[in-house]
Structures are given as structure tokens and as C-alpha cells.
Amino acid sequence: MTVAGLLAPAVRTAIAATLAGSGYIHARLYVDEYRSLPVVGPLFLLQASVSFAVAALLLIGMPPLLRLAAAGVALGALAGFAASRTVGVFGFTEHGLRPAPQALLSILAEAGTLLLLAVWQAVTFRRRGAASAAGAPVPWSATWSHGRRRRRPGTGR
């Protein structure tokens, strides 16, 4: 097995781990502190549930729609964090990195998810470009079209 072949499962697992870590933090915050908040509490529970579900699915595979869902979950959590520190979310506001250390850990987990997704995307596009330039068949996992390769003009491939 090549280095790239070993790296792909490791990155996929790391993405799932950071997303699940964010979900765990939000679940604990819901149970310990935010359960009684009328709208914000259930949003913490929803974020935790979706994070766990997407993380579990990422362990199975990495189709583009699932990668987009993972990015959306991480961006949504970060946007909620920023909104709660500025304009408020349904009347709920917090200041700084409170509750500590959960706020900082959550930011790190969500930023890590986005960074690892960007690395995955960069490697995928680089591998796809190198394979098609060399005339080699492009594996389905490296394409957006789920295995339907585009034929290069004039080559019959």
C-alpha cells in the first residue's frame, strides 16, 4: 500500500474525530448548562446529534455531499459561536471564551475539521490532476462525478 493509500483513511478518521469531538462538547454543554434555555438548548443538542451522525458516516466513506455536510456543521457551529458573542442568538449572549475550556476546545475542533477537509480536497484535486495528465485512469474516489470519467479530447481515454 502506498503512503497516499495509508494517509486517506488516517485523514478521514481525523476529520470524523474532530467533528465527533465538537459534537461531544456541545452534548456536554447541553446536559450541564444549556438544557434549560428555550431555543439555544435544543440547538446545542441538534448540533451534537448532527455532528455524531456525520462523523459516523465519514468513517464509512467520503462522498462530496458528506464532505459538504461536515463543513456545514463545523461552519454552522463557528457561526453560532461568533453570533453568540456579538449580536446574540435568540436573546442569548456570552462573552470571550466562556464557558472555559469548552469554548476554546470547540473552536479548535471545528477549525480542525475545516482544515482537514481542505487538506483532503487539495490532495484529491492534486491526485486527480496528476493522474489525468499522465493519461492514467482516474479512480472514482478522486472525482466529483462518482466514477464517471470525462474523456480527454482526441485520446479516446
Short recap of the structure:
The protein has helices at 3-34, 40-60, 64-85, 102-133. It has 157 residues and is mainly alpha-helical. The model is unreliable at 142-149 (pLDDT under 50).
Helix-strand layout with pairing:
Layout: H1 3-34, H2 40-60, H3 64-85, H4 102-133
Helix pairs in contact: 1-2, 1-4, 2-3, 3-4
Structural description of this entry:
Helices cover 68% and strands 0% of the residues. The chain is mostly helical and 157 residues long. It starts with a helix and ends in a 24-residue tail after the last helix. The relative contact order is 0.13.
Throw out a few tags for this protein.
157 residues; mainly alpha; 4 helices
Percent of residues in beta strands: under 5%
Task: Pick out the low-confidence regions.
Answer: 142-149
- Residue-averaged pLDDT: 86
Helix and strand run: HHHH
Main structural class: mainly alpha
Distance, first to last CA? 26 Å
The number of helices is 4
As a percent range, the share of helical residues equals 55-70%
- Largest β sheet strand count, sense and barrel closure: none
Rg on CA atoms, Å:
19 Å
Shape: elongated
Number of DSSP strand runs? 0
